[in-house]
Amino acid sequence: MLRWKYSRPLLALLLIYAALGPILPFGPLRGVGMQQTLAIALLYGALALTYDLLFGFTGLLSFGHALYFACGAYLTTIFVNRLHWNLALAALAAVAITAIVALLTGAAALRTSGITFAMVTLAFGELGHVLISRDFGGLTNAENGLPIDAKAIPQIFIGVVNTRYLFWLALAILVFIYVAAWWITESSAGRVFAALRDNEIRVSVLGLNPYRFKLLSFVVAGVLASITGVAMVLVLGSALPEYASTSTTIALLLMVIIGGAVTRWGAVLGGILYSLANTRLQDLTQNAALEKLPKIISGPLTEPTFILGILFILIVMFAPGGISGAYYRARFKYVLRSTQPKK
Amino acid sequence: MESFLLILITGIGLGALYFLLASGLSLIFGLMGVLNFAHGAFLTVGAYIGLWVSTKIMTGGSTLTLIAAMLIGGIGAGIFAIIVEQLVITRLYERHIDQALVTVGVSLVTAAVLGGWFSKDPLMIPTPKWFFNATNVGGAAIQQDRFLYIAVALFLLLLFISILQFTRIGLVIRAGVENRSMVTALGINVRLAFSTVFFMGGFAAGIGGVLIGAYIGGVTPHMSASWLIYGFIVVVIGGPGSLGGSALAALLIGVTQQFANFYLTGLGDFVVVLLLVLVLLLKPEGLLGKAKS
Q: What does the pLDDT average to over A251-268?
């Protein structure tokens, strides 16, 4: 069983391998397709972590988190394409405006709590999705997505040969979000977030304003999500309406639950695995063995969400805590057994 | 004036469709505190069963076929709702967040299964000839399907109100919405009320599925997505647990959306969400909802 003192160097090794992988003369990371797939997966890992901040750490079940991700992506693209700002300025402005959007929507939604809060954030998220996919104000190019002007992007991010820079960008964003999430959850505000999740009345009895702290958590998670949105535009080359859809938020929920909430690395792992599964399960399920099965069985099996959905239901019902939860339970048992005196 | 009448009646018809979804959602949420994402799956299952009835069992798209499709689709969706409730929701008793999550899973899996079995292209539900014909009301030419939606929603509203007011199980449901732990403490079997509410919700959603399938011109595995969201908005605005509130809010939303779409060039969805924010700021418990003490 892994111990903390071993798992931390292991993580460092993994990170070093990920950083060096694209320039090593061997290994799976040399392939450009793999780099692209992994870059997207790493960004989804980062995005899942921002959702964990909201859902896991603060206990706010939001169904509109994808809105802020899409805001970052679309606003950056619009500023670059329309106003011809340079990328850094556009990204900064996009993140700042997303913060304001998150502040306004959060301020309204947080007047409710629990399940009603979930419904209200769902409505906000859907509104964003509708505005984007209907080409509101002629800004978003509707269902086709909005490609970012290639001239505005630094040359190192363009072209198939340079995919490794995109991979490194995604890795850097993930590390940044991870450190930010770590710092926030370990700060005193982070303690209040956790306290709000566990017992809100107690927090207000202690003289703290629950509303303000929830709003803080909501805005911080939204801002971090918008940063991953900016990176996603660079990696994929365009902002897509799916970014804002409810199914993206639901995917985030699946990532966090499958990986395990409140452990940080669980959400990241869940995000990476989900993203890989979504792209790879399709290849896996199109093999010949399935075609011999009757359609009533093989039909659903070709849908990635079928397997992921079943897994999700089973985890919620029987294994709360997901992958990281299972790991910590196993380690706890191991520690318990090894510290108990032998009879 | 003609366009005003046209938009008004179309809006009421749309509100009627929203009500078919929201009535069940509201009762389920009011009684059990379950945010039921699987309601969209009930709708889709009802639509597919209705499709099956009206293409495989009966053909020709007569009025009778449509009624049979609605009834059998509704009953099928109701049974599916009870299965979902018994299989996953009752096992997570009082764990509201987990219940919401598990229903998200159910809706994903249902859409995946249906997507695997059937084509992703819209499948048409055969409709009677009069369905899309226009009739003249005060100078406005109005499609006749709108009146069907309104009639079905009114019928279900009356049916549900009579079940709630005049039957014993309805009494238990009403008492459960008011104070569930007290009802349980009195030794009354609330589980049966839960299943009844799920069947009623599934029944209405299934009928809604058949009608929505006809309205949007095709049944697809993901047809319920935006309808479910409107259902939620109606529940929040009307006040969870209140059938009358849902009816009122559905009407309000349908009509507002149509008028905003016409006079504000397609801003209907935006205005509806503004309305939601307004209600939350002024009356967070909803129009006819009771404030939680």
A: 90
**Phi-psi category of residue A271: left, alpha or beta, with phi > 0 → left and psi -120 to 50 → alpha:** alpha
**Which residue in chain B has the smallest CA separation from A134?**
B266
More confident site: A68 or A343: A68
Nearest C-alpha of chain B: how many angstroms from A18?
Answer: 33
Residues of B with CB under 8 A from a CB of A: 29, 33, 35, 88, 91-92, 96-98, 100-102, 104-106, 108-109, 111-113, 115-117, 225-226, 229, 232-233, 235-236, 240, 266, 269-270, 273, 276-277, 280-281, 284
Q: How far is CA A131 from the centre of its chain?
A: 22
Q: What would the DSSP string read from start to end of B241-258?
A: T-HHHHHHHHHHHHHHHH
* Residue B27 near residue B231 (C-beta atoms within 8 A): no
Nearest CA-CA distance, residue B219 and chain A, Å: 18
Tell me which residue in A111, A115, A313 faces B88 most closely, judged by beta carbons. Answer: A313
CA of B227 vs chain A CAs: smallest distance (Å):
11
Rg (CA), chain A: 21
Q: List CB contacts of A154: < 8 A, sequence separation 6 or more.
A: A87
- Name A238's bridge partners: A147
Burial A174-211 (b: 16+ CB within 10 A, else e): beebbebbeebbeeeebebbbbbbeeeeebeeeeeebe
**CA R_g for chain B:** 19
For residue A306, which residues of chain B lie inside 8 Å, CB to CB? 109, 112-113, 116
Dmax (CA) of chain A: 76
Mean local confidence (pLDDT), B83-98: 86
Predicted pLDDT of residue A1: 42
- What DSSP letter does each residue of B91-159 carry, written as one string? GGTT-HHHHHHHHHHHHHHHHHHHHHHS-SSPBPPP--GGGG-EEEETTEEEETHHHHHHHHHHHHHHH
CA torsion, ordered B215, B216, B219, B224, to nearest 10 deg:
-100
| B91 Cα distance to chain centroid | 24
Is residue A340 very low, low, confident or very high in pLDDT (cuts 50, 70, 90)? Answer: confident
The residue of chain A nearest to residue B274, with distances taken between CA atoms, is A124
pLDDT tens-digit profile of B232-253? 899 989 988 888 999 999 999 9
Q: Are A317 and B102 inside 8 Å of each other by CB?
A: yes
User: Whole-angstrom Cα distance, residue B108 to residue B224?
Assistant: 11
Average pLDDT for residues A275-280, to the nearest whole number?
84
In this predicted structure, the answer to whether residue B124 has a pLDDT above a threshold of 60 is yes
AA identity, residue B69? A
Of B264, B263, B234, nearest in space to B251 by CA: B234
**pLDDT digit string, tens, across residues A100-118:** 999 999 998 998 888 788 8
Predicted local confidence at residue A6, as pLDDT: 64
How does pLDDT run across A201-234, given as a tens digit for each residue? 999 999 899 999 999 999 999 999 999 999 999 9
ipTM score for this prediction: 0.86
Amino acid letter, A31: G
Yes or no: say if A194 and A57 are a contact pair by the CB < 8 Å rule: yes
Q: Mean pLDDT check: name the lowest of A10-24, A27-41, A238-252, A281-295.
A: A281-295
Q: What is the pLDDT of residues A168-204, one digit of tens each?
A: 899 999 999 999 999 999 999 999 999 998 888 999 9
Per the DSSP assignment, residues forming a β-bridge with A239 are A146
Of A108, A253, A317, Cβ closest to residue B104: A253
